[in-house]
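Hey, weird one. I pasted the Sensor-like histidine kinase SenX3 sequence into the form twice and got a warning about non-standard characters only the second time. First submission, copied straight from the form history:
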Amino acid sequence: MTSPNTALIALAVGLVIGIGLSALVAWAYRARARVVEAASSVVPQGTADVLDSMDDAACVVDASGLVLAISHAAARFGIGVGSTLDNQELRQLVRTVRSTGASATETMRITRSGAALDPRLVSARASALGGQLTLLIIRDVTEQERLDQVRRDFVANTSHELKTPVGAVSLLAEAIESAADDPAQVRIFASRISAEAARLGQLTGRIMSLSRLQAADGITDFDTVAIDEVIASSIEGHTVQADSAGVGLARGGDRGAYVRGDAQILIEAVGNLIANAIVYSPKGSRVGVGVKVDAATVEIAVSDQGIGIADADRDRIFERFYRADEARSRRTGGTGLGLSIVKHATQRHGGEVRVWSRPGRGSTFTIVLPRLDVPVPETARKIKKTKRARKADKAADPTRIRNGENA
């Protein structure tokens, strides 16, 4: 007969053996799952949904380099399901991750599909996704690089441009101090200081205008703007400059056009074009400002009979601080920001700037803006109707005038 202690011992041994066998079976299943996963080329469940929700280009690549799944943006770089990676640098990045098992990130330039002349700067990151799969994410940082470069150039150019008038004012102040006993020289130096101060004020003012135009919230209050008033104010503001240069100003074209925008900014933009036309026109010539209105747009054209623009400069004239004629711009106090302000002001109003130019024949800058259809107010229609009625009454009964009746 078995003692109670022996039975307990046998039960305990059986329990231990059962637990051990269960653990062994579980380990075997996990090991088998790992082996299957390592050898599998099936995209894990849910990965495709994640790729669909991504804004960046991304894809899953197997051991042979075959693309198994992609995000929508991947097509921009010519990456499609069932294809292989065309870019050698991307393939090398995937191989490196597969060999090391660690994620890696590289910055490179690759070409988008259908745009052989448009290489994009991208930040590519590859990570292991199981034993046979690699997740590749491609983030386009071209625009970020461009903006960083623009900021660096803007700071450098602004510092350079400000350095000249500030240095001149400092030297002229020293000259005035040295010539304190010579009133004539003091007046000459003082007038030059005034000119440099005016140049400095113009430069800082234009920098502020350009910064406001480029800011995301630079223009918030758009209103109905009469183009007739914009043209009139722009011409009036440059009449003295034109008279001093011996250049005539002429206005023509359609009337009664309206756009939606900021009147002051549009006046400055058109004024910049007129000022440039005057500067680059010979004495005795004429600058024309014309307006053309069609069903959808309003075109404001400023034409001159000046020196024109060379083909090599035409693509760069809207860059900040760029001057096609450096010597003339320095002599006339040009800042190199006028056309850049015109471009950004026009773009902020939903339009564009067009340029026609021939060296020795002159240039025409055209601002194209969306037209705003402004109906005639009811009160204005009534006034017109009343005037027509009175005119008809006069024709019908001329004795009203002779009798002193108020018409």
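That's the output from the first submission. The warning seems to come from a hidden character in my clipboard, not from the data itself. The chain is about 50% helix and 20% strand.
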